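Blinded run. Sample ID left blank on purpose so nobody reads anything into the name before looking at the predicted structure. Input follows.
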Amino acid sequence: MAMAAALRVAAADAVVTFLWVLCVSTLGASTAAVTSYLKLQGVQYALLVTVSLLSVLLFVFNILCDLLGGASFNPTGVAAFYAAGVTSPSLFAVALRFPAQVGLYLNLDSVQFQGFRKISSSEIDAGC
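Blinded prediction complete.
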């Protein structure tokens, strides 16, 4: 895999990973919206709606990844398929793709907690 192609796939991985984290983070709110719209009550219906929404997301992202030339939002899949010899990219290409995916997971996941103030364990014990 040429260097330009490896950079293109790594950039596509970063875009798809960003979109995946963005969409999956709204899954809980989407489930609540669908269950309230359909007037469904109960954990089993919420689970059914969540699994259905997740299945639709996976289907759509599978098509999107194919359109982007084999991009992936799952860093473990890239590493596992390379280690098993299923795919044949260079180690350089895998080394470019992995930080593009994992870095977005780590950065986007920490954004939601920036507004919270840090408290000590003594404040927790005191029941503040």
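Unblinding after everyone has recorded impressions. Residues 3-27+55-111 form one domain.
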